[in-house]
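Escalated from tier 1: flavin-adenine dinucleotide holo job.
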Amino acid sequence: MAQPVIHWFRRDLRLMDNIALHEAINSGQPVVPVFIFDDTLLKSRRVGAPRVKFMLNALHSLNDSLASYGARLVIRRGDPVKVLSALIEQTSASAVYFNADYSPYARKRDDAVIEALDVDMHAYDDALLLSPGSVLKDDGDPYRVFTPFKKTWNAIDKPERVETHFKKSVFANDLHKLTDGLPSLRDLGFDDTIDVPEASEQRAKALLGTFIEQDIKVYDETRNALVIDPFGKDRPAGTSYLSPYLRLGLLSPRQAYWAARDAYSRARNDDYKTSVATWVSELTWREFYMHILYHYPHVMQRDFVDTYESLKWADDNDLLQAWKDGKTGYPVVDAPMRQLKAIGWMPNRARMIVASFLTKDLLIYWKHGDIHFMQHLIDGDPAANNGGWQWAAGTGTDAQPYFRIFNPISQSEKYASPDYLRHWIPELANVPDKYIHAPWTMDEPPANYPAPIVDHKEAREATIAAFKAARGEG
Ligand SMILES: Cc1cc2nc3c(=O)[nH]c(=O)nc-3n(C[C@H](O)[C@H](O)[C@H](O)COP(=O)(O)OP(=O)(O)OC[C@H]3O[C@@H](n4cnc5c(N)ncnc54)[C@H](O)[C@@H]3O)c2cc1C
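Tier 2 regenerated the structure:
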């Protein structure tokens, strides 16, 4: 048999439009598809059971897709350098193909693998439409602000999708002899957890199809909706709900982008066109934050800007715990925090509201929220999550100015339906609509729901003072 090559799957758990896999197949050598469970990642405090479960399900589905070509996903666990060395020895593979990942840990891991292995290493840019380093200012520096980044990003041609012709002969024989098989969640060190949505490339394609055919038309209007059940059968128009699929590469950014471009070309009115452009802009935010993480990896540890180094963040575990548990007394904060724990996801508007509350009303450092989100979100992504948190805290790139602090009552009145609040906070079942956004204003508020843990007006003043002091304006 011809000497095989390895395709190493990481955050690209799909067969279609997968650049490194496509190139591995084009090499003409039989492909050994491999996934490695890396204990360093499994043990990270930024990893939690819901996302691992979603990933495990995605791996099952990938394995099934490979089975239709007579192949198997070769599953191993351990240090990628050691695992790949052993596999290369076992299979006599001549090369490893993989798609680049841009987080600080992934880059360090990939550098170590490239350094250690004595075979050809082929890395491709697949996780973004435009990779870090390809969207730069005229002076060659990376952008630090979104709008000019987007202007340049928009002006650059985007890569097309690749079409790969799969057939049985493209994969190596006897792959079942190489795999350790898929572990259970428990084998990986996690307790059983919440139900997660179907994790497959086919499901991602179907969700994208429905969104592009229907909901994208009204995205501009519906994108701030606080939806109860985004992954259920009767999911309402809101956003695309594709983030978990983009996160693990069940869908490629090219598939998303070109589908939106098709929709744009079919759009017959300005509102429709604006909606499509707004959605593409969200895909651009995804790229922007990945570029930021690549060029400024310090954001994982500390603020993007150094303006607030001396800020005295509050160190209050009780307040932090109340926020995590959805027991702050503010329904528009508590409902999404409970939704996060229950389904591993919350709408973007809700993420902004709860992040503002933690960092500006409770004055708790954004990193606590970042880690909590990463532990629970099925779409938890180091770049997007860090970017979102630092934006809310006022310490990031296009950050909310420190004096712009969401009012949890007006945000609730504007975006949260009484149904959404009552669904996630059963204690409010009998609270009339009139009081649902501020139940403490009732003559007899529900006894089993907490009173607000801070007074928003007082908290706002204290936060502005703390930010001003750190800026030397106090
Ligand atoms: C505090 C905070 C934390 C966040 N953490 C994450 C995270 O861990 N993972 C994550 O994917 N997104 C994160 N976001 C961004 C955003 O909330 C989610 O991407 C979005 O809610 C996912 O829903 P959707 O797929 O329906 O999005 P859509 O509105 O349909 O957008 C399409 C895609 O664009 C990308 N996107 C949209 N908004 C953003 C954004 N602001 N930043 C980066 N990418 C974006 C996502 O990949 C999303 O799937 C965070 C935002 C905030 C404010």
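The CA atoms of residues 40 and 79 lie 8 Å apart.
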